[in-house]
Amino acid sequence: MPEKPGSSRQRPLKTLERVFSKHGIGSRTDARSWIGAGRVRVNGKIVKDADHWVDLERDRITLDGKPLQSAAKLYILLYKPKGYLTSYGDPEGRLTVYDLVTDAGAWLSPVGRLDLDTSGLLIMTNDTAFAERVMNPEHKVAKTYRVKASPPVREEQMEQLRRGVELDDGPARPAEVRRVRDSAGHSFLDLTITEGRNRQVRRMLEAVGSKVSKLVRTAIGPVRIDELPIGKWRALTPEEIVALGGRASGNGSILNTSESRRKPRPAYLSGKNPGRSRS
Ligand code: URA
Prior knowledge:
Number of strands: 17
Bound molecules: uracil
Helix content: 10-25%
CATH architecture of the largest domain: 2-Layer Sandwich
Number of domains: 2
Radius of gyration: 21 Å
Order of helices and strands: EHHEEEEEEEEHEHEEEEHEEEHH
CATH class of the largest domain: Alpha Beta
Distance between the termini: 40 Å
Largest sheet: 9 strands, mixed
CATH superfamily of the largest domain: Pseudouridine synthase
């Protein structure tokens, strides 16, 4: 990549490919293909180098002759099923969360990740500042998981989780843990953490000598799974956006939802999952 140009004061420099995701217009992969196809101009000149530095205050960038404008800010809540990757595209052609939000009307990025085998709430947005805020562990946004673990988790192991267990990438912060019930060799727990490290909940349970067999994220801060059907999405409400640190004007124009009108029991309680079928 060409070296970032120096400057006497901090300027809003970005590589050309990042400008598109920053504006919520498309992914970096989309941007690379538009740039490579000669559809992007900087100050009137076609630039085919995706790593070209641009100054967002001074440079005029166009796609197909039209100046870039930030897309309206959209924020949605998806109930990700197990078996879907939290990524854009997959070399092996597996299903991804993007297969579930084709009707959202904008290019959105996931706020954090859920493992392939984890289901539950995933916020997606084109507001990069909002996403960074929610993901930043310093802001301590609580994420709650319903955990099925085996062998059953004893009271002293729950205490360990509450004190904070040691993980290979450093100590986990103390978690809130509540026993929901025990049954046939398993414990069901509600576990709330304020970090989002890779496979963190699974690793925390392993650190106390148990193993997660099912994991569902049921809440992110004040946003709860409630009656959202599995595999469907809805717009975040202005109150939810504000409670997570966004602006009340967000989602001004999104008013559709993939949510059906029926009001089923939350799927994480019924154990239903659409598996790999597309909704
Ligand atoms: N913790 C995990 O182990 N997996 C997830 O997907 C999320 C949190």
